[in-house]
Design goal:
436 residues; alpha+beta; eight-stranded mixed beta sheet; five-stranded mixed beta sheet; 41% helix; 19% strand; binds adenosine monophosphate
């Protein structure tokens, strides 16, 4: 095996330029979350394996398991939802419900690496725990819409569906609950394998040709949300659970305009299945028209998972933003801050005698709130110091030589254009702020 330094596949290092974009993404999300009153929560990356087992369905095979030297069976968390359910059960006496929490951190899945799919990835979750109100579902949709817009996305669609609409589609085709899993899995592949591919999968899983046709007709319905809901109501008439689900979707959608969600940002998509088995109500995902990147986020209502830990029903709705996907797409589209480095200004050291004056200038600028890096070796020629600052991607360099000190001035050099001018020392901060 080669000794070449290498990170584990499916996991990434993020060098400073990438981190600047990632921190911009996280700061933007936190701003939106906190404007809606969500509070931060942090949980460990490792959980007892039993906490995670039996909660997420087929995907459980992707969980990383291991045994500690002490013999504890543990696992890397797969998402931040199951840990949230544990926390709610463990601390329910200390929490005030409904409780809005956000959590930002890594999740781990033993996936085959492909575009937008990693083995270590960050998620930013928001959940409202302890409310069954459709206003809670609508607010989560408002939060995701606001967040994507705040990041600068415009061409995204949030696809909405309801678990009991999908179940109703399966029932309407004469299938019992036990066969429904195969139907969901087939429908979930619609984007990848097309309608004919789904038909084939349905037939293979034992669905009759006529029922497969009915399923496809329903999941391919498109158009304005109210039309799709009406069409589904006609076709699922008499199925009480499906009718209640459609009513629930209508109630959620009715709150969206007042919560600032523009109609062109969402659609009712009866084909949306979402993999995780804990969902019980509305489910949603946001996708971009281009570039292709799968879902930027996903979520829904899961009224039973938290209760399974807490021993009493605690209805919950929430979502997870996929930070890797937001990052990759924003990088590809050139979105986010243009900065490649943190420092806004570089203070040079003119010579050994004048070095202290420059360090003092740097302190003044930091006290005024600027991000400042200084040279470290006063023996270096100014040209070398400018070159270093430019290579680091810093926009401006300051020079404080004997003439400037005598005149109470500082030279401000724009490292992109090469232009430089003397500015009164008292005006340096303002000069830098206006030329950014
Ligand atoms: P989930 O936890 O499966 O509901 O996924 C929520 C969001 O997390 C998805 O919409 C993706 O943006 C992101 N995500 C899920 N799995 C991965 C992965 N393996 N790599 C990168 N992002 C992922």
């Amino acid at each position: 095996m080669s000794n070449k330094p290498q990170n584990f596949k499916g996991m990434r290092d993020h060098l400073p330029a990438a981190m600047i974009l990632r921190q911009h993404i996280l700061n933007t999300l936190v701003g939106v979350f906190e404007r809606h009153g969500f509070e931060p929560l942090q949980t460990p990356i490792i959980e007892y394996a039993r906490t995670l087992e039996g909660k997420i369905g087929d995907e459980e095979k992707l969980i990383y398991h291991f045994e500690t030297a002490g013999g504890d069976k543990v696992a890397l968390r797969y998402d931040q939802t199951v840990p949230l359910a544990r926390v709610v059960a463990q601390y329910q006496g200390q929490l005030v419900f409904p409780w809005r929490r956000y959590a930002i951190g890594q999740s781990y899945r033993g996936e085959r690496q492909q575009r937008g799919r990693y083995r270590e990835f960050w998620q930013a979750d928001v959940d409202i725990v302890g409310s069954a109100s459709p206003i809670a579902d609508a607010e989560i949709i408002a939060v995701l819409t606001e967040a994507l817009r705040a990041l600068g996305f415009s061409g995204f669609t949030t696809q909405l569906n309801h678990r009991q609409v999908l179940a109703g589609v399966a029932r309407a085709s004469g299938l019992d609950e036990a066969s429904a899993g195969g139907v969901y899995r087939a429908i979930d592949k619609l984007d990848k394998i097309g309608a004919d591919g789904v038909r084939e999968e349905l037939l293979k899983s034992g669905v009759a040709a006529e029922a497969a046709g009915r399923i496809l007709d329903m999941v391919l319905l498109q158009g304005p949300p109210s039309d799709v809901l009406e069409e589904l109501s006609d076709r699922l008439a008499g199925d009480e659970r499906a009718e209640a689900a459609l009513e629930n979707l209508r109630a959620i959608l009715a709150y969206l305009p007042e919560l600032g969600v523009p109609p062109e940002t969402y659609a009712v998509s009866p084909q949306l299945a979402r993999g995780l088995s804990y969902y019980t109500g509305v489910v949603f995902e946001s996708v971009l028209a281009s570039p292709p990147m799968g879902s930027l986020l996903g979520g829904g209502r899961y009224d039973e998972l938290v209760g399974a830990f807490a021993g009493r029903p605690i209805p919950t709705v929430g979502l997870a933003f996929g930070i890797e996907r937001l990052h990759d797409v924003m990088e590809e589209l050139g979105m986010g801050p243009a900065r490649r480095t943190v420092a806004e200004v570089f203070v040079t050291l003119f010579d050994r005698e004048r070095a202290l004056a420059s360090l003092q200038l740097a302190s003044e600028l930091r006290a005024a709130g600027l991000k400042v890096e200084t040279a470290l070796d006063a023996n270096d020629k100014l040209g070398k110091q400018f070159k270093y600052a430019d290579q680091r991607g810093i926009g401006f360099a300051l020079v404080l030589g004997p003439d400037e000190i005598a005149r109470g001035e500082v030279v401000v050099k724009n490292l992109r254009s090469g232009e430089q001018r003397a500015v009164a020392r008292a005006d340096v901060v303002a000069a830098l702020r206006t030329s950014e």
